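Quick one:
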Amino acid sequence: MTRGRPNGQCIYLVLARYTRELIVVLGAKSTTQKQRTSLELVRDINTTTNGSGDTITIKHFPNKDILVVF
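Output:
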């Protein structure tokens, strides 16, 4: 954090890995959505974003949330 900025503004440093990760909290899912594999999710995300995100991998957490790494 950098102090001494006008209007009491602070600048916080963000680790580079946090700019490449996205945690998705899932709500109610259909049966088809529950059956998709990590490879299918990566393919679908890259197709939907026209490859702009370059999704590398997906990790499923025990609580059913998903970590998407770009």
